[in-house]
Amino acid sequence: MLFFNVSLVHTGREVREASCVDIDALGALEVRENGVSITPTAPKPRQVLALLALHADQVVPVSVLVEELWGDKPPRSARTTSE
Q: Cβ neighbours of residue 53 under 8 Å, at least 6 residues apart?
């Protein structure tokens, strides 16, 4: 399980205080903020979140995201969509 704190910012002002986000990326993906499930249900956001969680504190190139989402046959819009 990965644990980290985040502070959400919107248009230059903080919209909520820092909160604890737990990401369980081994087995079924599960994301909780302050104990409340916020796990995305759509497949592609789940894939991206799991990939980023497994590469915490690392830069993940767009090419890696594209390959994860579409394999070896990405649509023409893949790079723009994933940025």
A: 2, 23, 25, 29
Task: Tell me how far CA of residue 61 lies from CA of 40, 68, 79, in angstroms.
Answer: 22, 11, 11
Instruction: Give the phi and the psi of residue 37 in degrees, each rounded to 5.
Output: -65, 130
Q: What integer is the mean pLDDT of 53-69?
A: 89
Euclidean distance between CA atoms 74 and 64, whole angstroms: 12
Domain boundaries, the chain: 2-82
Give φ, ψ of 59 to 5 degrees.
Answer: -80, 130
CATH top-level class for 2-82? mainly alpha
Identify the pLDDT of residue 17: 57
